[in-house]
Amino acid sequence: MTDAADLRGRTADLLAAHPPATTERLAFLRARFDAGLAWVHFPEGLGGLDAPRSLQAVVDAELEAAGAPGNDPGRIGIGLGMAAPTILRYGTDEQKQRLLRPLWTGEEVWCQLFSEPGAGSDLAALATRAVRDDAGDWIVDGQKVWTSSAHLARWAILIARTDPGLPKHRGISYFVCDMTDPGVEVRPLRQITGEAEFNEVFLTGVRIPDTQRLGEVGEGWKVAQTTLMNERVAIGGARIPREGGMIGVAAADWRARPDLRTHDLHQRLLKLWVEAEVARLTGERLRQQLTKGQPGPEGSGMKLAFARLAQEISGWEVEFLAEDGLTYDDWTMRRPDGVDFTGREAGYRYLRAKGNSIEGGTSEVLLNIVAERVLGLPPEPRTDKDVAWKDLPR
Questions:
Q1: Helix or strand or coil: residue 311?
Q2: Catalytically active residues, by annotation
Q3: How far is CA 120 from CA 22, 178, 386, in A?
Q4: What is the pTM assigned to this prediction?
Q5: Mapped to the 3 state alphabet, what secondary structure does 263-315 carry?
Q6: Which helix (H) or strand (E) holds 246?
Q7: Which pLDDT value is given to residue 295?
Q8: Residues near 293 by beta carbon (within 8 Å), at least 6 away in sequence
Q9: How confident is the model at residue 302 (pLDDT cuts 50, 70, 90)?
Q10: Disulfide: which of 137, 189, 211, 293 matches 198 by Cβ 3.0-4.6 Å?
Q11: Residue pLDDT, tens place only, 251-262
Q12: Are 56 and 41 in contact (CB under 8 A)?
């Protein structure tokens, strides 16, 4: 059984063989993966050592203290938080060996082809079709929307309808799509921030080999649940220090501008600070639960809390800073690598936080998940549950 002392020793060996000061960044990251120190809870040979997930913090602390390079998780978050757990659980040995290493090192960026113009909150109603040809490959046609990082991605996790004669949850299959293949077109979606961090993706006759399917044919919804549960943990359950994240920015503003303080704003900030700390500690408990298995519906509650707090804190900050809170540095249309909630000005945070209650599952859908799967309340009536997708009104 690998323990903390063993991991410290392995980390020391890695640092001795590949000194961060003299080793090229990508070479170091590859060596770290091969040493099993990328995801210590993953199997040996796949970036891990079959160690408890909780011991990852031991490795991370040792490498940070040594000045080792990171893999830029903000840029490759979809691959790390959503694609990797799904590939690990449902991928073939060949898929795991091919995909996981360049995913973790950041050599290959991933995106998520799930939402569609007519299937957002009701994702299982998706209309993108995958039809198998005589050669055994899948020909995919359809449109996806709100796709983060599609303009950067080499690979995508994709769900498509493979049997319209079955009820909507049962006629879906899950694929890995090469974003460089013919027929894949990525178009930017300009947001309220002025940037195009999201995209729409058009799929026209895209050929996907059956070897790039994850899970069984028709079981894509089951596979997608692994992705979605991990997505919500990735969005709402990130580890941050006390008074970190957006509440830390708001608190710093308060301390720096005594001339703008009022009693009402003080009371509201104290309330938000307490709620942010409760959310942080709840997230820590959730991460401890993850060491014992796959994420469950509790991650939906964390994502709900994250979205609400981000919007309320950013609104407080704009109000507190008065006219300074309305400033915004750059409306230039650009396609960024990621989102920076703490490194930009208050105006950006306020605008960008509006999307938090939509992306990664709308707050309304997540409230239903928490109500039904955490609290055990009766589910809403679903009259279309057993109706063939092709017979549903659209």
A1: helix
A2: 231
A3: 47, 23, 20
A4: 0.88
A5: HHHHHHHHHHHHHHHHHHHHHHHHHHHHCCCCCCCHHHHHHHHHHHHHHHHHH
A6: helix 245-256
A7: 63
A8: none
A9: confident
A10: 189
A11: 999 999 999 999
A12: yes
